[in-house]
Amino acid sequence: LWNCDVFCLPSYRDAFPGAIMEALACAKPVVTTWEADTLVIDGESGLRVPAGDVDALAQALLKLLRNEGLRERMGSSARAIAEEFALEHIARKFVDVYHGLLG
Strand runs (DSSP E) across the chain, as ranges? Predict the structure, then answer.
């Protein structure tokens, strides 16, 4: 993942694919489908297309491959999203919830 410019995972259905989270953590923009349940924000951390639309998939990939600045901006956003879901952040949120419940 570190060596790629763009991560692509077209899927007809996928429940929170781990590979996309890994790509986000590596600061890679992601091209995926609307049908995949993921944290990718269209136009911010990657591009999303309808499943099965090969032309839209190709256009999304070409758009990112041809624009280094866009890849870098989306990659930075991708990394920020992944950091929000880092173990340390999630664990802290759980601890805060439990403390709140226990009074």
Answer: 7-9, 14-15, 30-33, 36-37, 46-49
Give the C-alpha distances (Å, rounded to integers) separating 64 from 24, 30, 85.
15, 9, 25
Quick one: which of 24, 2, 29 has its CA closest to 80? 24
| H-state helical runs in 2-67 | 18-25, 54-65
- Write out pLDDT tens, residues 61-71: 999 999 999 99
Name the pTM for this structure: 0.83
Task: Determine the Cα–Cα distance for residues 84 and 86; give it in Å rounded to an integer.
Answer: 6
| Angstrom distances, CA of residue 85 to CA of 11, 80, 81, 89 | 22, 9, 7, 6
Residue 2, token pair as written in the block: 């570190």
